[in-house]
Protein: Membrane protein
Amino acid sequence: MSDFLIAYLVCAAIFFPIDYVWLTYMGQRFYFPQLGDLLLKKPRFGIAGAFYLAYVAGIVLFAVLPASSVLNAALLGAALGFIAYGTYDLTNLSTMKGFTVAVAVVDIAWGSFLTALTAAGGYWLFTAITG
Structure:
């Protein structure tokens, strides 16, 4: 099995369930009250799935495989998360009525943290598996 595939599977196993719990919990308590009618009642799971598949590949390519340590992977992951989630949230904040600063700040912080955690955990597990 290729290094990329091993790292991808490890990172997916970390990222997907943690983000699912976050979105399930915070969706009703934070995102829906903040964004109201901007959000669909039922997400388009195919489109979301395409994002998740691509984003985990980005974590592997830009944070896990080039890292030299768990800390380095975490820092690369935090930077990637900040850039990716920041691009999304700041674009929405600049172009959408009703998109709030609070949502942008929370979402950027979450994306930075989750990507750092995934990259660090992914790097640690990847190196444990592959030696």
Q: What stands out?
A: The longest helix spans residues 3-35. Residues 3-130 form one domain.
